[in-house]
Amino acid sequence: MFRTLPSTVIVCLISLCCLPLYAQSEATEAAQQSAESWLALVDEGSYGESWDEAAAFFKAQVPKQKWEGMLNQVRAPLGKTQSRKLKDAKYTAALPNAPKGEYVVIRYDTSFVNAAATVETVTPMKQEDGSWRVSGYHILPAQ
Q1: Cα 4 to chain center, whole Å?
Q2: What pLDDT shows up at residue 17?
Q3: Does pLDDT of 116 surpass 50?
């Protein structure tokens, strides 16, 4: 019995060290699912509904009509989404000019009918109720 004690202690210590990584992995997965659902709204042109589904912080920064106008001006001309591939997703507890909280910065390599190579950045934020909602969105030409 005592022979297995040191190995049991080591396994427990390794498990405790990995808990934060597991929590971040779970958060990243949940945030990515939220981002992809939200992007589906944007892809179908439901800009007002994408605002409705965004984080409270996002809504406080950008009025709904302004958001719809911005996407009509910037996103609509890109045309239909042809492909979207996850580039990376990074968990963070702090972002510049944003309240403290939990965020996942997700980047996608995206191709549109009228813009073959872009990078979309979607940043879900964990809400007080535990859900993840988009708090930021950017599209830039791929470099």
Answers
A1: 43
A2: 46
A3: yes
